[in-house]
UniProtKB/TrEMBL annotation:
InterPro entries: NAD(P)-bd_dom_sf (IPR036291), SDR_DHRS6-like (IPR051122), SDR_fam (IPR002347). CDD domains: SDR_c. This is SDR family oxidoreductase. Coiled coil: none annotated. Belongs to the short-chain dehydrogenases/reductases (SDR) family. Keywords: Oxidoreductase. The keyword Amino-acid biosynthesis does not apply.
Amino acid sequence: MITSLEGSWCLILGASSGMGLATAHELAREGVNILGVHFDTTDGQEKAAVAREEMRTHGVQAHFFNANAASARTREELLPRFAELTGGAGVRILVHSLAFGTLLPFVAPETEPGVTSRQMNMTLDVMAHSLVYWTQDLFTAGLLREGAKVYAMTSGGGARVMPSYGAVSAAKAALESHVRQLALELAPSGIAVNALRAGVTPTPSMERIPDSDRLARHARGLNPHRRLTRPEDVAEAISLLSRTDSSWITGNVIGVDGGENLTFTPNDPT
């Protein structure tokens, strides 16, 4: 059954920029109350505060928490607060949009650093494993119920390679695997879990990728729409997919890329 999202709650991990922020704005316009977790410096916190107030102009509740979303302590501290804020209604939509990882080669020249065990573990923990831990704790706390939707942000990098991207690529591949496993285990509870594979999207995390300008030019030229994916494209997909109580669309990697994945070949710089 297609239902209204008005009055429901969405938890966004990575809510202060990129796809997470765009999703928060989109859902707030639809009447969804927002819980946002982000990890920012003073400047980032100020921008998040401005965004929060903008969301509240739509008549919804919006609460942002500046904390490390990959920390078990953060989950322990925030889950009781989320239960209180939602009034027991739980979280209808969970968006995992954490993009923090190392961009170093596996095998580096003698004069340059290569990825370390600590950096590799951190990248996979933040960008992949934390999805499992948040889903576990929300479900155990009774905050994920029948009809809930869980979304993880993946990319074409989970199946392709390019210099210095190995740890992030591994994290995306692991994230997609986690999505399939969670979909299997949560299906009896009527909870859908999917990964959204955005195309090349101008976000702060993309800007940190070496040679990202060249990647953007290449993607724009080959995309059938002749433009890059925008964070708002992903936000609209989340809004659309969340309007059903059904969990029948689950365990998928759903392309939100304007057909970009149709035109890229294994030899392209992605």
